[in-house]
Every structure is written in structure tokens, then in C-alpha cells.
């Protein structure tokens, strides 16, 4: 029986794809920016052909919109996407903590893991490395879901990671001075896990996610987190 998996991309096309996608997810290539095949090719010291293949792949995934002879437009976060991702994360992480708090060893192990990730976040914020902060943030939330022990839900969480990473980069990049407040939100979540209070965790997570990714819900805020 033949495999239905697509053939691997040529090395140059794969390199161009990963380079551009990393820029999209990290916020280095902001929404609304027009990308040029020639500029990316020159940056990577390769021909335009692999860059064109990378653009086509990213357009298929919904990250770029192609305009013949003009380039590729970085597609903004779709209306309602932030709300949908926040709702999904709230369900996944709250369910995992509901499971974890039933076992003292599991609760202590998760709290220790999260404390380590919070320490890395604080270091990244202190050095101004907001991209590293975003990576540690994603790892923090994934660790919570994985601790629930449900491989299907963990797999679903992994599929959200790219959307999460872009959202985190946008929220932190919009007001980097508020990044320490994001870390404080994580500290509150760890405290709820340590105390075994799943209800408090759920409420703190809801506030944390909405503050970080849905600032329009807080008209008195300037887009950051406290």
C-alpha cells in the first residue's frame, strides 16, 4: 500500500519555509507586511524558486496571501481566532489541572516544572529577549496540558502551538513593558496548582488568557498585562 504522505520538500525550499514561518510566528514579520521573493532569496543566499515554493506552502496553510508580481501579504489574525484559541486553551488546561490535583505527587511534579519555566521567563524578560519569553510561555501551557495524561488532548494542544506562539508574540510585542505582568499571571497559576485549587486555577487562567490575548475586553487597558 502506497503512503499518502507528501514527498519531502527540497532542502532549500524547506529552509525558506522555516525561515519565513519563524518570522511570522515570532512577530518579526508583522501582519499586513508585503514580502518579496527576491528579498527573502537574497537574505538566504538562494534562488527565487525555493522561496516561491515556500510562499505557496505558507499560503496554503493560511499564513500568506499571494499577489502575482507583487509578493505575499502576511495575513492578520482572523476575526474570532483569538477568542477561539483562548476558549480551547481554557478547556484543555483546566481539565488537565482537574486531573492533576487529585494526586499530590502529580501536583508537586507539575508545580516544580512550571516553576522552572517561570524562572526562564523571568530571565528572558530581564534580558529583553521577548522571543525566548514567548517560547517559554508556550512550553508552560503545554506542560499543563501534558500533565493531564490525555495524549489526544495533548496532541490537540500541540496543533494550537503555532497559533499560540503568534498570539503571544503579538501581545508581548505590542507592549513589551507589560511582559513582567504576564509572568506574574503564571506565578498565580502555579500557586493554584500547588494548593490543589482547580477552581481558582480556572478563574486565574481565564483572566490571564483574556488579559494577554483579548485586550479589547478590557477597555481600560492599553494592550498589555498587569
Automatic annotation (TrEMBL):
<dbReference type="InterPro" id="IPR000524">
    <property type="entry name" value="Tscrpt_reg_HTH_GntR"/>
</dbReference>
<keyword id="KW-0238">DNA-binding</keyword>
<dbReference type="InterPro" id="IPR011711">
    <property type="entry name" value="GntR_C"/>
</dbReference>
<dbReference type="InterPro" id="IPR008920">
    <property type="entry name" value="TF_FadR/GntR_C"/>
</dbReference>
<dbReference type="InterPro" id="IPR036390">
    <property type="entry name" value="WH_DNA-bd_sf"/>
</dbReference>
<dbReference type="GO" id="GO:0003700">
    <property type="term" value="F:DNA-binding transcription factor activity"/>
</dbReference>
<dbReference type="InterPro" id="IPR036388">
    <property type="entry name" value="WH-like_DNA-bd_sf"/>
</dbReference>
<protein>
    <submittedName>
        <fullName>GntR family transcriptional regulator</fullName>
    </submittedName>
</protein>
<keyword id="KW-0804">Transcription</keyword>
<dbReference type="Pfam" id="PF07729">
    <property type="entry name" value="FCD"/>
</dbReference>
<keyword id="KW-0805">Transcription regulation</keyword>
<feature type="domain" description="HTH gntR-type">
    <location>
        <begin position="10"/>
        <end position="77"/>
    </location>
</feature>
<dbReference type="Pfam" id="PF00392">
    <property type="entry name" value="GntR"/>
</dbReference>
<dbReference type="GO" id="GO:0003677">
    <property type="term" value="F:DNA binding"/>
</dbReference>
